[in-house]
Amino acid sequence: MALKRFRMHIRIPRGWEISDREATPEHLVFGRRAALKALGAGSILATGALPAAAQQAGAAPPLRDGIARNEAYPGVRAITAEREATTYNNFYEFGTDKGIFRAAQRMPLRPWTVKVDGLVDTPKEFGIDDLLARMPLEERVYRLRCVEAWGMTVPWIGFPLSALLKEVGVRSDAKFVRFETAALRDVMPGLRQSWYPWPYIEACTVAEAGNDLSFMVVGAYGKPLPQQNGGPLRIHQPWKYGFKAGKSLVRISLVAERPKTFWEAIQPSEYGFWANVNPEVSHPRWSQASERLIGSGERVPTQIFNGYGEWVAPLYMGLQRERLWA
Ligand code: MTE
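# MTE complex -> structure
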């Protein structure tokens, strides 16, 4: 309610109102080589070995070797250049423009824990490295379609959300999964914008969470997921608009009631709970019929369910009366 009163006086700027020129693409490599160079550990490169002691404080260690690509979900489009995908981001905790990657580097990725709790048989708190060691990591090339009508295609590394939920056991009275992003006041300047309903909350149904496409992302382009893309752990459900993909998660809760999500709390007439991609249902302020590909700038037609209908359409049988498309 306080938020509504505020909105009468303060105009909340939105990402799509910011021109692309304000984003500052930069030749940045966030990978292991750069980290090693910064550490002056060039000789280690020759052997490929990285002693634990050489890890920069707060940095994520390299992912394990031999993570294979799962070809079941073809990316279809050309993969977006790593530089583009890691320098053109939405992460409002660090600011409302697309060039937050610099500010995001201040967020330490270690130590990091994620709690899985609520209506589960055994609530657990996982250290991220323990989780990475336990989970069946694979690479999946998924498209990402932002509600702002741009898209990219990224080789993500992660594991099915269902594998994590199996670890805790979902009770039959759980109906929704709630994803909570870290709220770190010291490193996230966006949190000072107190009219936003922090922390960033997203959610889906238990049935959606159980769909094999629901992917917990821990890496991209063969490397640990960088801060600006939601490292060390985010959710990605590629048939939904990108705002459903909560980043840098610290808590995943199984609940009975449908959670109020971040954008829904801010503007329910524009951002709904389901947010499935549909070219025929316009956003109140722009068309969703096509999207601009980040990198090439090419404009391509948008597909229903972002092209993943074959896997997810059955989830919505009988729900036609719901506002599934916004
Ligand atoms: N998660 C948090 N915590 N905060 C955000 O501002 N933005 C969302 C989503 N997840 C956002 C977030 C939006 S609008 C999009 S399109 C995607 O992240 C963008 O992911 P990317 O930067 O990896 O492309």
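# post-check
The CA atoms of residues 274 and 324 lie 5 Å apart.
Residues 1-53 have pLDDT under 50 and may be disordered.
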